[in-house]
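Go through this chain.

——
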Amino acid sequence: MDTEASARGTTVYLPETTVRMLPDPVSTGAASLTAGVARHVLTTDVELSASGELLRYKIYPELVRVGARLTYEEADRILDSASGSADDPTFALLDRLRDATAKLRECRRAAGARLIHRREPKVTVIGDVIDIKIVDSASPSRELVAECMVLSNYVTARAAADQGVPMIYRVQPNNPEDLFTQRARLSVYPEFHAGVGLECYVQASSPIRRYVDLVAQRQIISILQDASAAVYGREELLAVLAAAETTEAEGRDLERRAKRYWTLTYLKRNALERPLTATILRDGASAELEDYGVRGGLRGAPNLPVNARITVSVARVEPVRGWLTLNYMSTVTTAEEDAV
């Protein structure tokens, strides 16, 4: 199973199916945090200052029983100030976490992290039905979870770096001009990660769906009692790193192409005859459809500022080739925005 997981490298999420790194009985069963069932986990305890700086940390194995497994939508409803109650223990816990993670986020912002607000399309295909939903990454629950994951990954990196234990780190040079085009890379040395604004960073929070995370957790578990007992040496990690970079890139490309194909198929079936709202992109020659999160070439538009909202129509769409061309119709005015 480990050999196959290493070869796959990552779970690939496609609109019509999920190709898992680990078999379903493991990834959705024995290793899944099912509510009400005791599970072995790595726990990360942290102590933060009032302003969100990390003061102390501890990582240790533990047996936990998850009380409730919430969807993002359920957590957002609980966090809604109109419906939240201090007498509700779930609300009280989420509200405290929201406050703490907001401070963590500000600390990272002050350190130079680029906190980009993305609206990602989630495309699901069941039979002949295509469903497209835009997911807001800046919803309260999603920001909360994201910050907790970033913190846990940072603590794992600190633990490895502090003890001189080999680890696969994610690094990104602090170069503002290239930050939007240069992806983070993998390295066996702890270096600054400009994207998250942290001195060192690993990915260890998703061992079910990323092999590099699984390796990181194995490494941490092995050194909890003895720093010299690491499972992987630096040369072994370099081999894992090389394979991971290839499989991750292939997985991302497959997900991107599949999502685009099904989105364009939906547009071809349902949106050829009606106006659509789009946003001008940085190059001015393309735009992104707001309700579908897909980009296309733009024809006939005047010289408009970046992020200007416009109305367009589909001029050409070829799902197999990934082609989408949009015709400019009009600029969305303030009154129209208010009406929307």
The mean pLDDT is 90. The first strand starts at residue 12 and ends at 13.
